[in-house]
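Field log, afternoon session.

UNIT: design team B
ACTIVITY: writing a sequence onto a fixed backbone
BACKBONE:
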């Protein structure tokens, strides 16, 4: 597996480190004995669709979805035609309330990714029906480095941190230059501290992008039809 595009240069030092080799070997051994998601050719979809140079929003998830056919390398996203998971339903609900649109009929978020929204999970692979099983194997070290490198971009970036594990990454971000939007995880209970519903992350992100002279994200792009197979 190879990280695509300009990320291969930005993250080049990581690929010579022992943890990276151990991580990839570990995942390969897992695939020989278990179903592992997403498929090998989709592990780095987020990096393929969103270049380092174009990244202006980061949405941080935890694990990929752990049921067959769901994960395709973008945090919170599923291919079109796949039943929309509860966390994504909440995201769509908040988006509709925040920016006043109808709910999308599919859960494929690749149109966001193509506009500069890095949909990054902290852990990039998962064993079938066994969430968190690939935690602590090296993915977090790698994705922390991704966050740190995005933090070094001279252009201000929006970081959406939903849930406790994502919010812990705030320590990697220069909040004086970048905008951090925090809330409970979309799947959290309604009475959670800083509830997700009502947090208005989409309009807040666009307001910051406009204030810093950048093109806002067309969040409504996910409402348009897409290839049933997804990407």
């Amino acid at each position: 597996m190879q990280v695509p595009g300009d990320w291969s240069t930005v993250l080049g030092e990581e690929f010579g480190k022992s943890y990276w080799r151990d991580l990839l070997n570990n995942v390969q051994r897992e695939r020989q004995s278990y179903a592992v998601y997403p498929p090998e050719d989709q592990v780095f979809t987020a990096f393929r669709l969103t270049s380092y140079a174009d990244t202006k929003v980061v949405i941080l998830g935890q694990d990929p979805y752990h049921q067959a056919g769901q994960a395709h390398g973008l945090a919170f996203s599923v291919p079109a035609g796949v039943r929309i998971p509860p966390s994504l339903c909440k995201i769509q609900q908040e988006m509709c309330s925040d920016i006043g649109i109808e709910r999308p009929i599919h859960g494929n978020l690749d149109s966001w990714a193509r506009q500069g929204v890095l949909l990054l999970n902290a852990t990039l692979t998962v064993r079938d029906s066994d969430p968190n099983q690939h935690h602590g194997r090296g993915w977090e070290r790698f994705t922390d480095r991704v966050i740190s490198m995005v933090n070094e971009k001279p252009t201000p970036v929006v970081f959406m941190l939903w849930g406790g594990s994502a919010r812990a990454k705030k320590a990697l971000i220069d909040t004086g230059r970048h905008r951090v939007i925090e809330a409970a995880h979309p799947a959290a209970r309604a009475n959670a501290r800083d509830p997700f519903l009502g947090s208005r992350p989409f309009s807040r992100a666009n307001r910051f992008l406009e204030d810093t002279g950048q093109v806002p994200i067309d969040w409504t792009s996910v409402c348009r039809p897409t290839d049933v197979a997804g990407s």
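LOG NOTE: Residues 85 and 159 are 22 Å apart (CA to CA).
NEXT ACTIVITY: expression trials, pending approval
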